[in-house]
Input
Amino acid sequence: MAAQGAGCFLLLFCFSVLAAGSRQAVEEKTHPLPLVIWHGMGDSCCNPLSMGFVKNLVEQNVPGIYVLSLEIGKTIKEDVENSFFMNVNAQVELVCNILSKDKMLQTGYNAMGFSQGGQFLRAVAQRCPSPAMKNLISIGGQHQGIYGLPHCPGESSHICDWLREMLNLGAYRSLMQEHLVQAEYWHDPLNEELYRNKSIFLADINQERGVNGSYKENLMKLNKFVMVKFLKDSMVVPVDSEWFGFYKAGQAKDTYTLQESDLYHEDRLGLKVMDKAKKLEFLTVEGDHLQFSKEWFITKMIPYLK
Output
């Protein structure tokens, strides 16, 4: 009788373990991976015409999804101002801390960055592997930086006029690098050595001064790295940066592609291996910077989130 009772107990235990596993599998299947969104320059986490619209669109098309639209600061006003004036490395550190404490993200998440939010989230992927980023979608991100700032949209245009003047005066001065966000991904093709030595953000995440093995290892853990380029972009110079291309050194007219770059051939970030494994995806939009239709977003972006 004792043996029979022990057998029954063991059988019940096995059933309970199997049932718990089945429930977990169902929960994982019915609850899609969370999405983390990082807005661009002059925008905020919750603007109903931009990130608020995107958040609602995702929630409508991916039932049950948890969407975190990052707010960099304590208020919307701070969030907008920080997109111009808060040290990017400090922003990335702040976001890594936010993500590590969010219980909804601990089994992994997808990330979607708009404009400069694209390269900022790539920095998160490279520097902060836990919780794990699964897919990174960069919409108009400038992964090789910019060499020009033609215009800014809406209410931020007066700030951009001032910012353009500051960048022209000396983007690589320490004061500019520490306090002007766009200076931190300013890439001067006429002086590559100055860029490599003085850029405190972009040159670091692009492994320009040496290879940090963890950056490469962490980025290669992504399932997909999707880059969206806007074919009529009048804001990002050069637009090739949205696909990891840039101006050839010594001039500002002819460009190279990712596959033609030293970054790719030396595989400092693992992008060559990822490309061969079909982890990199390059998409285009027939529009100006961040101008896309609701239909395009649902057709092209939503499948990466399901």
Summary: DSSP finds 13 helices and eight strands in the chain. Confidence is low (pLDDT under 50) at residues 1-28. The first strand starts at residue 35 and ends at 38.
